[in-house]
């Protein structure tokens, strides 16, 4: 997994590298950062040779990186204009050092430097240069961005976006696109027209650690492809655990917890999953939950539905064992006894999909939670029914995984969707502090929070084609199955495994069928392929374990 840092954490990492025991000279770290952009950008532009490039350098250290970039690409044969937004004296020592080198080169006629801080700018000339350029480097503002963009950044960013909108000019952002909040992914201008819009880059080369704001919309949309470079940071700083840690999940993390299955294991080893769900109008949901559990390798699956719906379920999935409970079309407290008689044999319960909104069902759910001891995955209608039951749920939280989408989360937390979106990680952690559960907050991206609220995981897999009814039901079954997986370390690891593989299976369907229109059952049926790809990834010595490339070849 890769660390996802806030601006403060990044600042702390930089300071420790430079002024802690490692004593890396600031000018060297900046040199490494600038050089990393020059090298990594070749994936996008192939070569700097003979390219016309404008480098916009802001007043902070992000601008300093821009000076280094300009020097290196000059050496590679680019024709370079550098716009300098700050005054020499206001730059940090290291940025000024690189600026003076560049001035010396400009004096020889190697490049043109425009001092944009002087207030007598020739914007006609700027527009002309933008029209004729091949590449724009955005080193205007990096992790030091706060609030809304102000001039001259606002004006320059608009000119850059305008020039690049036909796609011919490539925009490379240094560390993070100007105008994107490092911590949250909020953007300057909130996406409204004629406000201080952010840079929309084709590629972002980011330093030391990934930034949280680049994984969340709308900021993510500004980044283009994201490339990370360690810029020579000491490995302990790259890997050490932050307080308030967040991580981006990677293939290797999931492969490590999932792929071994003892050759002498049997169906009892791989969990007995009970899907307790459904109601008269929504019987497909629990069936899809069962299918998710089956494809994720559950040893045995019991489906328990209200009696009046049982006949619709029997035989739909021959692999599962179906029984009708009670006598009605929805669960009620009268059905608890029958469920509890069996529950001792169950490894994990999945409850919620298609359960309906009847308040009697709420009592049923609470009694099941109160009188069982195994892990429970709570989803969909069950979440809505217990939305006001924080005090009831929290004592049982350590064995509960909740899987709300944004609207369900908003109902549970009492926070509007718009507010949650402003800082998804903080909203999710705050919720877990109060409810004590393992949380899977479904969205783009899905976020998983451990029940101690100490660690947040962000999932990189999945696509917009998965925004369709039934996808969540499949995920619930998968998480239940993985929670019962032999050797699974804890519920949080099970949740991460389910979310990551579910998204990867969706990505497989995207490639096979098209961007949308594939079904939740097709996603479920792709799970074994993903697990196979994980297995291959685990056997591959290569550092670059590209799961998606491997799935193509299976
Ligand atoms: N040693 C290191 O630390 C290393 C750091 N590195 C690099 O440094 C970057 C962080 O540098 P940093 O901290 O100097 O901040 P930075 O992103 O340049 O922004 C500050 C400037 O932005 C301006 N600004 C802010 N908000 C604004 C707004 N709304 N609208 C307009 N302007 C706004 C603000 O101006 P002000 O608002 O104060 O007028 C100020 O001048 C980091 O992203 C990485 O690239 C690498 O070299 C590796 C080593
Ligand atoms: K930038």
Automatic annotation (TrEMBL):
InterPro entries: Carbohydrate_kinase_pred_CS, CARKD, Nnr, Ribokinase-like, YjeF_N_dom, YjeF_N_dom_sf. GO terms for biological process: metabolite repair; nicotinamide nucleotide metabolic process. Its cofactor is Mg(2+); K(+). Keywords: ATP-binding, Isomerase, Lyase, Metal-binding, Multifunctional enzyme, NAD, NADP, Nucleotide-binding, Potassium. K(+) binds at residues 62, 138, 178. Its EC number is 4.2.1.136, 5.1.99.6. SUPFAM superfamilies: Ribokinase-like (SSF53613), YjeF N-terminal domain-like (SSF64153). (6S)-NADPHX binds at residues 61-65, 142-148, 175, 285, 354, 405, 473. Binds 1 potassium ion per subunit. Residues 250-534 form the YjeF C-terminal domain. It catalyses: (6R)-NADHX = (6S)-NADHX; (6S)-NADPHX + ADP = AMP + phosphate + NADPH + H(+); (6R)-NADPHX = (6S)-NADPHX; (6S)-NADHX + ADP = AMP + phosphate + NADH + H(+). AMP binds at residues 442-446, 472. The keyword Cytoplasm does not apply. GO terms for molecular function: ADP-dependent NAD(P)H-hydrate dehydratase activity; ATP binding; metal ion binding; NAD(P)HX epimerase activity. It holds the Pfam family YjeF_N. Gene3D superfamilies: 3.40.1190.20, YjeF N-terminal domain. Residues 10-239 form the YjeF N-terminal domain. Homotetramer. Catalyzes the epimerization of the S- and R-forms of NAD(P)HX, a damaged form of NAD(P)H that is a result of enzymatic or heat-dependent hydration. This is a prerequisite for the S-specific NAD(P)H-hydrate dehydratase to allow the repair of both epimers of NAD(P)HX. Belongs to the NnrD/CARKD family. In the N-terminal section; belongs to the NnrE/AIBP family. HAMAP family: NADHX_dehydratase, NADHX_epimerase. This is Bifunctional NAD(P)H-hydrate repair enzyme. It comes from Megasphaera paucivorans. The lineage of its organism: Bacteria, Bacillati, Bacillota, Negativicutes, Veillonellales.
């Amino acid at each position: 997994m890769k660390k996802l840092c806030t601006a403060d954490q990044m600042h702390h990492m930089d300071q420790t590298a430079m002024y802690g025991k490692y004593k890396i000279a600031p000018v060297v770290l900046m040199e490494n950062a600038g050089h990393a952009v020059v090298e990594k950008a070749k994936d996008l532009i192939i070569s700097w040779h003979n390219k016309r490039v404008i480098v916009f350098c802001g007043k902070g250290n992000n601008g300093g990186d821009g000076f280094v970039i300009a020097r290196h690409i000059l050496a590679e044969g680019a024709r370079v204009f550098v716009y300098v937004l700050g005054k020499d004296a206001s730059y940090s020592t290291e940025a000024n050092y690189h600026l003076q080198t560049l001035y010396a080169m400009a004096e020889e006629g190697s490049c043109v430097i425009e001092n944009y801080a002087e207030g007598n700018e020739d914007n006609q000339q700027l527009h002309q240069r933008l029209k004729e350029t091949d590449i724009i480097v955005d080193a205007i503002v990096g992790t030091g961005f706060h609030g809304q963009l102000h001039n001259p950044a606002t004006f320059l960013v608009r000119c850059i976006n305008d020039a690049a909108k036909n796609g011919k000019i490539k925009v490379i952002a240094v560390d993070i696109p100007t105008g994107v909040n490092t911590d949250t992914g909020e953007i300057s201008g909130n996406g409204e027209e004629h406000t201080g819009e952010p840079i929309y880059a084709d590629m972002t080369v980011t330093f030391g650690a990934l930034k949280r704001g680049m994984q969340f919309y709308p900021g993510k949309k500004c980044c283009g492809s994201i490339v990370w470079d360690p810029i020579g940071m000491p490995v302990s700083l790259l890997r050490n655990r932050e307080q308030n840690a967040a991580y981006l999940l990677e293939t290797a993390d999931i492969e490590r917890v999932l792929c071994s299955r003892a050759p002498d294991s049997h169906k009892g080893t791989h969990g007995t999953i009970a899907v307790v769900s459904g109601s008269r109008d929504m019987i497909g949901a629990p069936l899809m939950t069962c299918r998710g559990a089956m494809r994720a390798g559950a040893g045995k699956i019991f489906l328990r539905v209200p009696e009046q719906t049982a006949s619709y379920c029997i035989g739909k999935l021959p692999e599962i064992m179906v029984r009708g409970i009670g006598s009605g079309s929805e669960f009620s407290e009268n059905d608890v006894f029958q469920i509890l008689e069996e529950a001792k044999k169950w490894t994990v319960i999945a409850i919620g999909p298609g359960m309906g909104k009847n308040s009697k069902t709420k009592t049923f759910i609470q009694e099941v939670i109160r009188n069982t001891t195994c892990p429970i995955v709570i989803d969909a209608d069950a979440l809505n029914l217990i939305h006001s039951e924080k005090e009831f749920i929290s004592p049982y939280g350590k064995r509960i995984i909740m899987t709300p989408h944004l609207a369900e989360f908003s109902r549970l937390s009492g926070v509007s969707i718009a507010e949650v979106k402003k800082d998804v990680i903080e909203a999710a952690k705050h919720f877990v502090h109060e409810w004590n559960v393992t949380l899977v907050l479904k969205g783009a991206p899905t976020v998983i929070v451990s029940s101690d609220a100490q660690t947040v995981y962000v999932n990189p897999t999945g696509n917009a084609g998965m925004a369709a009814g039934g996808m969540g039901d499949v995920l619930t079954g998968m998480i239940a199955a993985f929670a019962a997986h032999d050797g699974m370390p804890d519920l949080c690891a099970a949740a991460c495994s389910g979310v990551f593989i579910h998204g990867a299976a969706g990505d497989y369907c995207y490639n096979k069928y098209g961007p949308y229109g594939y079904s939740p059952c097709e996603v479920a049926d792709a799970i074994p392929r993903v697990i196979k790809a994980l297995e291959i990834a685990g056997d591959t010595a290569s550092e670059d374990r590209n799961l998606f490339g491997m799935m193509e070849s299976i």
